[in-house]
Each structure stands twice: as C-alpha cells, then as structure tokens.
Amino acid sequence: MTTPVSSAATGHSPSAVTQRPRRRRSTRWVAIAFVAPLLVYLVVFYAYPLIENVTMSLHRFDRGSFVRGGAPFVGLDIYREVVSDPRFWRVVSQTATFTVVSILFQYVIGLALAVFFHGGQFRLSAALRGMFLVPWLLPVIVSGTVWQWMMNPDSGVINSFLGVFGIDPVWWLNADNALMSVTIANIWLGIPFNLVILYSGLQNIPTDLYEASSLDGASPWQQFWRITMPLLRPVSVITVLLGLVYTLKVVDIIWIMTTGAGSSQTLATWSYGMAFGKGASTVIRYSQASAVGTILLLVALAFGVVYLVMQRRRED
Amino acid sequence: MTKSPGRRVSAGVALAACMALAACTTPQPAAPSASGEATKGTTTADIKFWDPYPQRTDGSDWDKLVKACAPQGSTITRTSAPQSDLFNQLTTAVKEGNAPDIVVLDNPMMPEAVSSGLVATAKQANIDTTGVDANLMGPGIVNGEAYGVPFGSNALGLYYNEDLLKKAGVDPASITSWDALNAAIGKVAASGGKGITFSGVTGEEGVFQFLPWFWGAGANLNDVSSDQSVSAGQLISDWIGKGWAPKSAVTDNQSAAWDLFLTGKYGFAENGSWFASAAAQAKFKIGVLAIPSKAGGVAPVPTGGEFAVAPVQAKDADNHYANAAAVIKCLTDGDAALKTNETLGYLSAKPDVRAAQVKSNPVWQPWVKSVEGAQGRTTELGAKYVEVSSQLSEAIQGALNAAGDATAVKSAFATAAGK
After folding, report:
1. How many CB pairs under 8 A join A and B?
2. Among B88, B202, B389, beta carbon nearest to A261
3. What are the tens digits of pLDDT across the range A242-286?
4. ipTM of this predicted complex?
5. pLDDT digits (tens, 9 = 90+) for A127-140
6. Quick one: how far is CA A192 from the chain centroid?
7. Do B116 and A66 touch (CB under 8 A)?
8. Angle of helix A229-248 relative to helix A86-119, nearest 10 degrees?
9. Number of folded domains in chain A?
10. Sequence ranges of the domains in chain B
11. Does residue A6 surpass a pLDDT of 70?
12. Please, what CATH class does the domain formed by B156-302+381-416 belong to?
C-alpha cells in the first residue's frame, strides 16, 4: 500500500503540478457519479410523480383527455371546486377526528403498555410483548376483513359480547357509526408501532435516575411525570408526528371495512375513490383526486416542518 | 455540526426537479391512431387477452377455452383484474400504446370507453354482431356505430328457499307485485325465518341490484329524486328497518349476499343468473322468480354481462385487429357461442343459442324472460350514466342507513341528486 503513494509523491515532482487540476476534475466526476444514482432515484420516484400530480390538478382531465392528451389548463379552478364541494369540510373534519382520536389512543395505550413491559421483567413478558405486535404483522386485508366481520350488526361477535351485558346491538358500519368503527380498528392497528418505539425510548432512560428518585421518596406516579415523560419527550414527538403522517394517508383499513361510505370518508379515501373510479364515485375524476391528494400532501408537509423545527430547536 | 452539505444536496434535488418539470411539460405523446383494418392484417405470435374474471384462474375451464382459441402459430396470454381495475388498466395501456389485443369489458363501461377513444369499431376489428339481441347490443352502440360484441348475458332474479316458503305457507306464484312480495317476506319472518338478502354495497354493483326496484317503480334515470325512485328506496329501506334484510347489506357485495342466502335462513335472495348452477346444487331446494314490479307484473332488470372488444392500437393496428377478429370469432361463432356461455354460466346474447341452452340445461328456463326484457343501463344516458350511477349509489346508501325512516330516505335521494 505504501509504495505507490511514496513513488507518486517523490518520483515525479514536476509533472505532479500539472496533474493536479486533472485529478481534481476527475474526483469531481467521481463525486457526481456517486451522487447520480440517488439524484436519478429522487427525480424519477419522488419529484416526477409529485410534479405530475400537481400538473394534473391544474388541468381538467377526464378519461378521454387522459388518453389523447390536451386537457385544458384551468389554474386553480379544480381546487376551488373541491373546496366549495359541500362534502369537503365534512370530509376534512372526519379526517381530523380520525387522525386525532387514533393518535391519542394509540399513544396513550402504547405508552401504558411500554411502561408496563419496561417496569417488570416477569415470565413470558417477551412472549406477551410479541403478541402485541400481531396487528402489525398481519396483512391489513386480513385484519380489516376480520374487523368487518366482528362488527357485523346482526351476527357479529362484538354485538354478541355486548349482548351478554344487556347492551343493544350496535350497527357499527352504518353511515353515522362508520367513523367510530374504523377509528377503533385503526387504533388497534397502530398500538404496536407506538409500543415498540416508546419501549425502546424507555430503555434509553438511565435507571440510576429512578433509583436516586426513589431514595428521595418519589412515588411511581411522580417518577412517571417527572422522569419518564420529560426524558421520553423527544421520542414521543417523533412517534406522534410520524403517526400523524401515517394516519392522514390511511386508505386500506377504511376501504376494506366500508369503502369510505358514510362518516368514514377521509381525504385519503376520497382521493383514492375519485382517482380510480371506485367506491360510491363510479366516475373517474383524475383532476379532483390530484387536488385532494395535493391538499393532503401539504398538510403532511406542514407536520413535517413542525417536526424539523422542533428537532432543530432541540439541537440548538 | 454543520448543515451546509445537506442544503447543497437539497438545492441540487430542487434543480433536478425543475428540469423534470420542463421535461414533463413537453407535448403529450401523439394520440393513438384509430385507423386499422383487421382484414388487412395477419395474426401474430403473441396475443394478449384481458378479462374481468380473476376468479377463473389458470387451468380453469374458461382459461382453457380462451387459450384454445389461439390461431395456428399463436399463443394467448390471459390477464384478469376486477372490472374497474381492468378499465383503468386499459385506459393506461391505450395511452401508452401497448393495449392488449382483446378486452372483455363490463357493458355499462362501453359508452365511456368509446367516447374516451379506447375501443375500435366492430367493423375495423371485423367482429360479427349479427343475430345479437338489440337490448344486449345497446350499450355497445354509440352514434349508430357498433363497438365489440356481447357474447353472453346475465340477469337478476328472485331466488327463494322452497322449504322456508312452504313452512310459511307462501305460494311463490302469488308474488307478482311489491305488496305480494312484502306479504310473503312478512310470513316467512313470522314463521321464524329471515327475509331477503341483496347487495347494497357502494358503487355500480349495488346500483345494478337496485335498478329492478327503481325501474319497477316506474322511475327514470333522468330523475334520481322522483317520487317513484324514492318509493324504491323506501322498499329496501323498510326491509332493513323491519329486520327482514341483514344490515350488512350496506357493505355486502353480491357474493356475500349469496353466501348469506346459502345459510338457509333467508326466504329470498335477489341475485344473478350466474348463480343458477350453484343454486341447483345447494343443500336445500331453491326456486327462482322474476323480480316483480311495484304495481304488478315483471320489473325490467338491467342487462348484465360483458362485451368482447378490440382496443385502439397505436402501431400494427391491422395485425392486432386481426388477432382480435380471430379470437372473438372463435369464442362467439356458431356452436362456440353455446360452449362459451355454458362455461361462464351465462345465457347467450343470441336467441337461437339461448334456445339450445335451455333445451340442454333446464336451469335456464326461468331466466330467459328476464334476459329478453332486460334494459341496458346506458341505453338512455350513454356515457352520462356513470354520473347518475354515482348519485344513485349515494342515495341507496342513505336509504339503507335510514332503516325505514321515510323522511331520511326522501332526503337521501334529494341530496344525492344535488337538490
């Protein structure tokens, strides 16, 4: 390894001067060659679809103009139409309810379970913790169908169970209750994610803090609020913000259970239905779907910025 | 730690994105050409065939039948996807200039497919449409020009559980109007059975199932919120409200509704002729009736079934159309029509073939009248039908959710119609 370096350094000192610019140019090319695959990847798979999506929402497309081309440019007309659609604000508020309620319960239950498993290493605790991951491992098509079946209003197990306590059967998936039902299923689906991240966050909190505080006579409740919560804050912020972005774009579980019918329509399912002519919207609405998709993207982006700002503030 | 390298990279990405923007605003690819004549082309080695029957897997009877239709020296590659996915895939394929040679497309999609420039005329693709019933051919005729051919048809009817009806003391022959039907369902329910299963799922499938009641009430697709239309909504809404129909009808598709009927607990099921053979093999005796209209008599049902079409091709159109002509002829011509329909569980679109089917297979007898009296969904409205169908779908969901509440049913139809 040493010989070529020394010969290059000592042997040809005059020519080394002339070689330097060429070498710099070649290293620049090497650098570009290293970055190029990433750039190409980003452009092809991120920038291009994103720009196509926005372009589509600014032109009035139907199936014919999608095939033949020549969709007229209409500026922000599609956005105006979408926002003034009587459904829009209803769907926005449903999306907000679905997202906020899902995240709240996922976080609280996930945290409670994480603290529970972190607190005591009892027998089978690992196996039990593993079982809580099942919702994450099952394909959503399976869990969604099972939820739909369990929530069957006439013969579902949930209603039979409630019946034992004398509670009247609930029509889970009708227009009014659909939002509540899909939210319940989605909470169940999101608990493992919260559990795993918060659990690993808990493991990074030094145990001597707990020992010291218990010597000072702190109760478990005080320990939780004064040590666990503050030290877990960075992890909590990541969990909640990632959860927000994930939940905003949920289509699968809702689609499988209700195809976005009634109150379970969210911005994501609405956009999906219009983009592919599915659900109640048999008509394909490329432009409107792109517009809703773009709005959804902007909301997610806003949360992303919040995340970055918080991260930066923490670093300073 | 410094952040400038990261910023520089993101600036580079932004620059690249701008370049991509410039690239994607360049003129659209040329529109696929609608020219081409099957008679001027020759069949090619690879033939692509798309159909909406994913349940008919490789090696099934249908799969074998299609593949056996490959002309000398050709092989057929068959691809299946659900109806609406298939239509979307066809849209993209025609746009990209790599459309398959033959597509089997659901009949209410035909006017939109034609107006979007996806389908070649029957004349171009040398498809023979003679002898096909006018009502079944209807969806494939746009501005007097025929596109593709319906090789078979199916219809909706009212299946009933003979044992349950006997136990309840109901004579099926008496069910000729809505009142008579409701009385019969009431008797079945009173004798410990359940009423009726049907599909009210969002989208075209639920609308397809609703149309016999809609048309049977005298309603017209030009007016979704008419009194007649609302009365049809009230009928199915009451079934839910009285507990005669399962509440899961709001999410049940036709297969799910059929499975519920097969439990043997329900007296009636509104479902399609494609289950006729399955009904003959069920554990209990199943009969079938024509769906009654409100005032009495047989209600018009929507035509069901698909069209075999040749998609528009950007290059080598003559040869692609020649492929389509050869394969479609092999599936629909002469005796082949009977085999194709029996394989799919359909009734032929041609009266003479239908007669032969009934002769050899008595389960078809009760369906012939329904198929012959069936009404094309798009015949009246053409490509506008999908818009009306979306409104109806919303109204049906509203009506089922109302569970009998007349005010809510009425407002569901008014809201859906945008009034």
Report:
1. 116
2. B202
3. 899 889 999 999 999 999 988 999 999 999 999 998 887 778 899
4. 0.82
5. 888 888 888 889 99
6. 14
7. yes
8. 140
9. 1
10. 38-153+304-373, 156-302+381-416
11. no
12. alpha beta
